[in-house]
Amino acid sequence: MQTCPCATAHNPQAAHLPTSPPILDLPPEILQEILSLAYSDDKDSHGIPVHLTRRLALFKKNILPVCRRFYDLGLHALYSHVHIGHPRAFDVFRHELAKNPKLGAYVKCLDFSDFTSIGLGRTRKMNREIQMVTCETITDALLQMPNLREFLVSEALEDDLGKDVLQTVFNRQKYLEAVDFCGASSDSFVSSMTSLKLELGSLEYLSRVGFHECVSLPAQVYEHMLPRLGRLERLDLTHTHVSARALMSIPERARITHLSLAKCRNVSPKAIVGLLTTHPAVTSGSLEWLSLQWTDLSAEDLTAVLEGLKRTAPKLRYLSLYGLPVEEAHLEQIGESVEELSLGFADVEIDSLITAFSGREKLRYLDLTGNPHITLWTVGDMRLLRGIPSVRTWEFDLTKILLKMTDVRLPGYTVVIGQGRRGWIFRGEKNKDALNVEHHCASPEVRSAHYCQHVLGMDMGSTEAWAGASRKIDCSGVQYGGGLERGIYLYYAYRIR
């Protein structure tokens, strides 16, 4: 844009008027970062969480068309995280790659966590016949993504995770940092994982690994992979056949922050105790998140684990002892750093809980599902809720307690009924930070909407109130994958008890 000479003659200051908005004069790195922040903002102007799909649409509509520079730099933000929610979206993405091959270099996260092949009258078989998402098409897309950092898939794609896909992910993606195969357990997936040959130097950067509910994978898969993970930080092995040999083969230089051994019945109590009290990858002080839900630990084993964690895990924030033989003496052994604690089915009396936790300032989340001493009446009399003032989120038995409290007034608290088998009580009658009750709408079945809300939407946001409720390790990174559970991940994180 040029300034008119006549205007300059009559107004000397016109020569100094900016020819473009100041933001466009910023270095490309800074402007790209600004656009990335605009893209990653997950709340609207009213503070209501915006689902990822909606954010993508808004970014394309409102940001990219502003000017050529916004468009060029916005592509980096838009394609750094490729979110695929259904077969048609993947087909469109592949056509975009074909028209503009340079887009593949922008992709850091290929995210199928929200993917479903069922809907709009289609079945899995019909979608396979359409041939939009297959082993071949996924492999073809992966080969065009030389800078991929995260590959997030789930059981919805288990039949399409063939040998070529896995070879490309693990051996061709040299910068790979995270993989998640949540719920995948089909015969074809197991066969492909079992026959996978890892090349020398592969998995060098892999630090976040999720096999949550991959119930069919044999122990040899973990024994082949875990020894290579020298940078391991997050490891989700919930309900798998991982062996003690595989766990002890994790390189000592790894620094694990998140570990789930929930429902790992193939690992003996002795091996679990040994891992948590002697392995440098766990005992170096890095551990922040630990789930031992429904493992075979005895009361004596649990004593050894808790005593060890007090010494080696000073930053431990989340601890799940769900289904373990927790006794009154164990409560005092739980480290002061713990903020989110699950004591599901612990046979511990209310007075003992209040005595042990009433003085704790950091404890924010407490799961007491299945406790035989807690009933509709003991919750309703508020003695427990008020006896541990630091706790802001409580979890109780859904069918025996919370579903019967839809008409019970709990001053200062909100009862929340989840979509699955779980329910919570939040401190605050309208805890917008926890679930945004106005946004999700109350169920027609709820007669007392001020005191009981039903969570209807799949996307419950990323607030701290929900952090302790998740039973799945989030393997996505905030920078690329968004750091949010979605789709099938959300199901395993918040719905299954």
Name the descriptors.
globular, 497 residues, 34% helix, Leucine-rich repeat, LRR (right-handed beta-alpha superhelix), disordered N terminus, alpha/beta, 21 helices, 15-stranded mixed sheet
Summarize this, please?
The protein has a domain at 263-391: Leucine-rich repeat, LRR (right-handed beta-alpha superhelix) (Alpha-Beta Horseshoe).
Can you walk through the features of this model?
The chain has helices at 5-10, 28-40, 52-62, 68-80, 87-99, 124-130, 135-142, 163-172, 187-194, 219-225, 244-248, 269-278, 280-283, 299-312, 328-331, 350-357, 376-380, 383-387, 437-440, 464-467, 487-494, and strands at residues 81-83, 109-111, 150-154, 178-182, 208-210, 234-236, 258-260, 289-291, 318-320, 340-342, 365-367, 393-396, 413-417, 423-427, 452-454. It is an alpha/beta fold and 497 residues long. The protein is built from 21 helices and 15 strands. Strand 9, helix 15 and strand 10 (340-342) form a beta-alpha-beta unit. Helix 2 (28-40) crosses helix 4 (68-80) and helix 7 runs parallel beside helix 8. Strands 1-2-3-4-5-6-7-8-9-10-11-12-14-13-15 form a 15-stranded mixed sheet. It has a domain at 263-391: Alpha-Beta Horseshoe (Leucine-rich repeat, LRR (right-handed beta-alpha superhelix)). The model is unreliable at 1-9, 431-451 and 456-462 (pLDDT under 50). InterPro entries: LRR_dom_sf. This is F-box domain-containing protein.
